[in-house]
Design brief:
mainly beta; 5-stranded mixed β-barrel; 95 residues; 1 helix; single chain; globular
Length: 95
Amino acid sequence: MGKEYETFVRSIDELAEGQEVQLTIRDLTPGPRKYRCRVVKAIVYNSPDKLPDGDTLRVRSWTGVMYPQPRMMRIVKEVGDIVPGIPHGETLRKK
């Protein structure tokens, strides 16, 4: 069985099935590295049948509400611990 991760998204639609997406994930797997965060590029699937050997991805809204159906994902690339750009809060403000 794979590892278990968590991510926060503005909209569940950001997780288009079968397409590469950049995510900030938090490791939920028991052990010394629990809660470690990192930025990755991953391919996400809606059903465990489509990626039986993948890792479980629990998805939360920006406010922390857990979506009922976990996704499966395969990490394609490590982006790094820090990604330059605008902080999340700044992207949500209306102009």
